[in-house]
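Narrative summary of target 7.
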Amino acid sequence: MNPVQQRRERVVRQLNLLAYVGKHPDSTVMEMARDLGSDPGEIRDDLNALLLSGVGMHGGQMIDLNHDWFSVNVIDSQGLDKPLRLTPTEANALLLLLESLETMPGIVDADAVKSAAAKIRAVAHGAGVDDAQMDSEVAPAATIRQAIAEEKQLELSYYSATSNATSTRMVSPIDTFHKDGQTYLRAWDQGELRMFRFDRVRSIVLSDAPSTPPNAPTPALDPTDPFSMGRAKRAQLLIRRDATWLADDWDIDINLSDDDPEWVPAQMRYGNGDWLVRFCLGQAGRVRLQAPEELAGEVVRRAERAMSVLR
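Modeled conformation, tokenized:
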């Protein structure tokens, strides 16, 4: 059982423990372990963990209980020992969240999300909460999930925005993650760790070949910086003052304190030089590349070639 499954199982076990104590207030730890199919030491650990749990982090929001080997006394369960009752507004909000999760392939168990949504709709009698239904799991999520579970390779036809080209790759999948509204696959591609955006996968085939990760351990995913942009190279730019909105869409740091009335200095993180050149050409008139000098020269050369064709 992986760590995520272990944490989920423990949460379920702790909630069951609260409900059990509420119905059997005079039970000993040994009796609880027997009835719940757990180890007595595990029961004590769960009770200790519950003392540090709650619906918030402030006074009056934490679970309060006393326990020893002979008895358990729950002083305040924070309502977690009984089924949750939702108001119509809460039910609608929860369903909206579940429907949003259904559109994030590979992040959650789609069957579990659909089951939870169906149960909420059933008790709400369908009043105003039946708006959206996902007909099927968004491709290629199901194939990717199967490949990860079975440790099989995937054959991808993938469009790369970095190189502006589509290529076929055989990759060994690792896991998936969600960032800024997009879902990504982490996979080994010819010994290198790469990220593949789901919506750029043109076609996908599950191979019979087993995954072939390198001997080195897989780097842990940093959810705050999954693309390691903190270590990326930086380009020096000049951006027109009326085009500083570009920083809303790209990772650009702008120095608005500069006195130049027309152009402001900026820095931009980038991973691929060809992509940076194409970006600057696409924003011609708004952006000037100052450094690296060799890439700035390439921008000029490509622009001159394009102009010569138009003459």
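The longest strand covers residues 165-179.
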